[in-house]
Amino acid sequence: MQSKVKAPDLADENDVSRVKSVESKPDLEPKATPWFQKWGTVSQITSALISFATLSVAVYGLSAASPFFKNKLLTEANAHLELESTALTKSIAEQKIALERMAADVRTHRLQGWNLAVRRRRTIHFKRIIDLHRKSGF
Fold it and tell me: Which residue ranges make up each domain of the chain?
């Protein structure tokens, strides 16, 4: 018995379905559309233009009014800073005076304490001298 080897069938069912699916795909080339429809529908484009116009008018209005508000804010800030600086200057001067008074008090207390210590030593010294003189018979 002679066996015949079958040659592979090139037109297999899978290959045929692949060819059919490629042929059935729509063209990938874009259809002719108006240039403005690339950005969206007409209503979307008009709403975007309206919002842009509103925003531009608002920005222009703020830029025109900004010198007035800027000057007003700057004058208020300057007045506030001047008040704070005068208050700080007063408090610094008061603190300086208080520190000078404390330093003077410390100096006087030191001098008073030094004087007291010297007096104590002198009195003790003189008491000893007087006691020695008494014991010796003077």
Answer: 42-136
| CA gap 123, 26 in Å, rounded | 124
Are 42 and 36 in contact, with CB atoms under 8 Å apart? yes
| CA gap 45, 36 in Å, rounded | 8
Q: Indicate whether 26 pLDDT > 60.
A: no
User: What SS3 class is residue 112?
Assistant: helix
Model pTM score: 0.31
Under 8 Å CB-to-CB from 7, ≥6 apart: which residues?
A: none
Q: Are 45 and 39 in contact (CB under 8 A)?
A: yes
pLDDT given for residue 84 in this prediction: 84
